[in-house]
């Protein structure tokens, strides 16, 4: 008897993978994680609860335990059944790539009045937003969220699909109506080892033939183009491409050719990479047959995602908050700001601890090349010493004269704002929407935007 049939016979009250959430009549998936093996909690759970069903890849001498070879596959299939196949009741669009996923989901939510999002900033139902621990949650949580959306009457879900979610099989059991590829640059090499491995994880999302929207200006994107592809980019070969465009502090103005029809795009978002995000959103909306006027209106009213090029100004000085935490993302942001600057670029950033160390010097090099002044500080140092992370960043900087080092992030932002003169842009990068900072022994409240508003006395 297969896993699902056993579960159906048991008829669980609920299903969880966290031993702290187990109750009487629950189905428990004993996952073996990187830090904790949930199988160690199984004997205690069997003593505490009379009615319980445990799914595990380990053998237990108890009839209430079912051993399976593939627990992640089983969990996705069971979650799909338990929540009554929610991904078939919604049009689920999966968006993957290194950069642009979050902004694209927010653009789509603005275009589709009955659409929701799942991703880095959380998940939504109508105008309410809920937090998530991961960009893409585990399959049980994902199916539970999709079910909530379907019950609320939503018709679409625009979901960020992270590389970890693909590799760790968090999207098992989800039926995607459309898949989107944005781009690939170095990230998460602490997990994947090489860029090739990381890219292959992303590209594996497209192995099963599905209609897709693909950035064909990206070298990796070109590998997955086929007859089911809606392509976008600046290339003459793209089905969706800009004909005329300009960038300013006021945003993007462009005319975009989509399958021979011109869109008149006006957006308060800035920079070339946001034009790419807009084209990706147009591709999705075009696929689902959204009225052209609604697409233009949705793009125009979207402010993008929280913590993505979030602008503040005082006395002619601009501060920009952005989540850019890779060298490529930093390059995108800083190149965009350089195109529209009236004065200098002052960049404040750090790098995450216990994460891909190889990108740190590259981030330093990008900041040096595209900034007039660089303030290097802490991001989320986690278990590492902030000074050690800063030294890794500095190893990529040739001109140390343009660098200010300040490990305390609050003080770093304060210094940058004090240095700034009229016309300057202070780019505060790395944390974006995050309202916390993870230190060695604790997590504290920290919000870059709040700090700017506090220091500038903004409401």
Question: Mind explaining what this structure looks like?
Answer:
By secondary structure, this protein is α/β, with parallel strands linked by helices. 33% of the residues lie in helices and 23% in strands. An 8-stranded mixed sheet has the order 8-7-6-9-5-10-11-12, with helices on both faces. Strands 16-17-21-18-19-20 form a 6-stranded mixed sheet, with helices on both faces. Strands 1-2-3-4 form a 4-stranded parallel sheet, sandwiched between helices. The longest helix has 16 residues, at 272-287.
Sheet having the most strands: 8 strands, mixed
Structural class computed from helices and strand pairing: alpha/beta
What is the 3D form? globular
Number of separate domains: 3
**CATH topology (fold) name of the largest domain:** UDP-N-acetylmuramoyl-L-alanine:D-glutamate ligase
State the helical fraction.
25-40%
Radius of gyration: 23 Å
The number of distinct β-strands equals 23
How far the N terminus sits from the C terminus, by CA atoms, comes to: 62 Å
- Class of the largest domain in CATH? Alpha Beta
Assigned CATH superfamily of the largest domain? Mur-like, catalytic domain
Mean pLDDT level: 94
Helix count from the secondary structure assignment: 15
Instruction: Bin the strand percentage.
Output: 15-25%
Instruction: List the strand order in the largest sheet.
Output: 8-7-6-9-5-10-11-12
């Amino acid at each position: 008897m297969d896993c699902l049939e056993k579960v159906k016979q048991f008829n669980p009250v609920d299903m969880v993978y966290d031993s702290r959430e187990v109750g009487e009549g629950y189905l428990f998936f004993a996952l073996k994680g990187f830090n904790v093996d949930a199988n160690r909690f199984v004997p205690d759970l069997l003593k505490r609860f009379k009615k319980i069903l445990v799914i595990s890849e380990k053998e237990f001498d108890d009839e209430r335990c079912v051993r399976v070879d593939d627990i992640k596959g089983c969990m996705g299939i069971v979650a799909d059944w338990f929540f009554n196949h929610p991904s078939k009741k919604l049009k689920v669009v999966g968006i993957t790539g290194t950069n642009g996923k979050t902004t694209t989901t927010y653009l789509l939510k603005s275009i589709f009045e009955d659409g929701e999002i799942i991703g880095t900033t959380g998940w939504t139902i109508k105008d309410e937003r809920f937090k998530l621990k991961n960009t893409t949650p585990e399959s049980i949580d994902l199916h539970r969220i999709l079910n909530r959306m379907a019950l609320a009457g939503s018709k679409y879900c625009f979901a960020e699909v992270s590389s970890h979610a693909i590799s760790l099989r968090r999207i098992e059991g989800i039926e995607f109506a459309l898949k989107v590829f944005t781009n690939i640059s170095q990230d998460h090499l602490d997990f994947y080892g090489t860029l090739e491995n990381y890219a292959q994880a992303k590209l594996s999302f497209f192995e099963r033939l599905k209609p897709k929207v693909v950035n064909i200006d990206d070298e990796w994107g070109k590998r997955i183009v086929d007859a089911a592809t809606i392509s976008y980019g600046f290339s003459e070969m793209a089905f969706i491409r800009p004909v005329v465009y300009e960038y300013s502090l006021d945003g993007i103005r462009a005319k975009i050719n989509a399958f021979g029809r011109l869109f008149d795009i006006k957006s308060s978002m800035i920079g070339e990479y946001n034009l790419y995000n807009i084209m990706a959103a147009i591709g999705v909306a075009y696929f689902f047959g959204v009225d052209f006027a609604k697409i233009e209106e949705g793009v125009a009213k979207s402010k993008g995602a929280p913590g993505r090029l979030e602008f503040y100004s005082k006395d002619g000085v601009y501060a920009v908050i952005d989540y850019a935490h890779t060298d490529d993302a930093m390059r995108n942001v800083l190149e965009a700001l350089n195109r529209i600057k009236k004065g200098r670029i002052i960049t404040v950033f750090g790098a995450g601890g216990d994460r891909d160390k190889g990108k740190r010097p590259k981030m330093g090099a990008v900041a040096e090349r595209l900034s007039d002044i660089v303030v290097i500080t802490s991001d989320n140092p986690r278990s590492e010493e902030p000074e050690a992370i800063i030294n890794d960043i500095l190893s990529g900087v040739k001109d140390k004269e343009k660098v200010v080092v300040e490990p305390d992030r609050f003080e770093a932002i304060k210094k940058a704002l004090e240095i700034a003169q009229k016309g300057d842009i202070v780019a505060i990068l790395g944390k974006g929407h995050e309202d916390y900072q993870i230190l060695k022994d604790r997590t504290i409240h920290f919000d870059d935007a709040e700090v700017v508003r506090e220091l500038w006395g903004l409401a």
